[in-house]
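Lay summary

Proteins are chains of building blocks that fold into shapes. Our project writes down both the chain and a compact code for its shape. Here are two examples, one after the other.
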Amino acid sequence: MGYEIYDMYLEYGKDTDSPAVSCHGDGMILEMYASGGFEQFLQEHPVNVRIDDCGDRDLTKVFDENPHGAQFLGEYARKYGMKAIVISYKSREDYENGYRHTYGSGGVMEFGIWDDGLYINSYGVFKGDDQKLHRFELQQVDGLIFGCIDKKQGDDLMIRPGARQWMDLGETKGEPASLVYSVDRDEMGEVTIFIPVRQYGRFCSVFIQHFNGDQWRQYEPNKGVTKDKEYVFVTYHGIPDSHFDLAVFGGGS
């Protein structure tokens, strides 16, 4: 990789050709690894790989400046069935606060990684002929942090506090505890919003309203809590598009 990594995870599929397969679980293969033959071992046994560092690296640039690692992963993804994800966390503390560390397991490389956008600078995925290098963009407005995959120069998200009123569609009661935040984005994709617990309480309710099927709709998305209990978060998945309103309603601490 050309730099120090913090953690590496390798996962193999079950060896169905093994006569002793009944005693082997998923992730186990028949052959024992012999020191010094790592590249040959990777060529003979397709593997899911996760590589983590805590160096706050922009992998979209690092792999251009030192391309050997990217070339190696790309070649083994194309030729030998490797599936790999490389993740650069902003710090050791951010790594520990990461919401999940199961990326790469089961060959699912990046699903849900937007939940960790607060802690990750960038990541790369190598699978078959595909190579994707992404970094996260964060914008803070009134204590709320809006995060998405960074696609272009400048701010990908246009966030307008108080631009619209919360509509009375029968889904919520009372007035929001926050302003209504209108979010617009040219690109499709997930937008994760981190809401400070200190400001709104851990049990606050978060609602989204958006225009879909020729009418306005409101719903309460699934809510998570960061490991340090500093933020609750929700994700808008860009369905049907990347324009929506968000409001926080009162809860408890």
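And here is the second example, written the same way.
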Amino acid sequence: MKRCHGVLIILLVFVLGLFSSCDLLPGFITGEERGFVVLKFSLQGENTTGVYSVTMDLTGDDSKRRFSEDYRLEAPGNSIYGFLPDVPVGSWNVKISLFNSGGTSILEDTLGSSFSVYPDEITTLTVTYDPALGADLTIQWESSSTVESAVSIDRDSFGGCYALFAEGDNNYQVREVNYLSGRGAFQAASSFSFLYPDGSSFGYSTRSIYADFSARTDDTSFTAFRQGGGSGTYTVRVTDIYDIPVSAQWQFPYTDASRGLTYGTNPQQGGSISASGDNTLTWDPVDDGMVKSIVVLIVEKAWMDSGPPAFYPASALDGWETGIFLPGSTLSSGTEYVMILLTFDKWVSDTTPFGSITNFYPMSLIDTILSYPEYDMDFIGISYTTFGTTS
């Protein structure tokens, strides 16, 4: 057995020597130093030539070594962030090729000279293409041992909405939920984490759902939903492939969000009104310093998740108002209805979108409201009052 080991050692030394003489030995064995290469591609203006993908070819000066990577153009933004983590130190030539969705070459261009990869440094190739300027690319490069994060958060887009809802059928049990959302450049993101005012923190990776927390991310946006969280500062942290983080914060401006909730007083939960006579539906006053507008929806209870509202106002009400007039014969007699009181910390200038809502249960309703770009709310309050009608 010892003789066999000796033969294997001799054979291994011979093979390593053969590879080394041919300049084919991997860098991790020879100790060859490595660096990093990043491709940052952006398409300016309209994509009139139909660019679909980009290929980056790196060829060593000795022509014995080559890297070739294909990258798909990401929209919106028409950008690419490509990363090569293990490129041998030395001089390299670069060729950038653009292709359409059918794989046909649109154009190719070179840097015109070689660029250098340094030990443990990041060499960034910045490539810009503007179809309106002709068939040339702008290719530049720089190397740095310290770089800014490869991801970015558009801080103007980052924000949240804190919502409270109280269901009369559950004795007005108040529940809280919050949504966080934002946009940015996340092609090079390695992780997302969300920190809440109550001190809890959640991380996100593909298919992560932690009890009362869920999140969705892609290359340009993220959203996170959670039940609970409290008032205060919300933080999102995105870490790139170099483990360099960026973060953004959103401050929920109200210390006592329950001031934004109101409850029906006429009819009360489980009460009734005459369908043939005129009625004034009323609710408790709310803090009009926090609540800027109120929207009232009246829905048949049997159609809470499958029909349009039976009634909604032509315009929102001011936050200080406490009632709305309902003419006789607006509602059908002998029917159960739900009055939904929506309170917002922003003015609702257009209530027509509420006319197309088909599911009025809390989570669906909140999700629908936040899907309308014009409803940029920091706070939503919802209460439900079930009542019946008589003739």
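What can we say about the second shape? The first strand starts at residue 34 and ends at 43.
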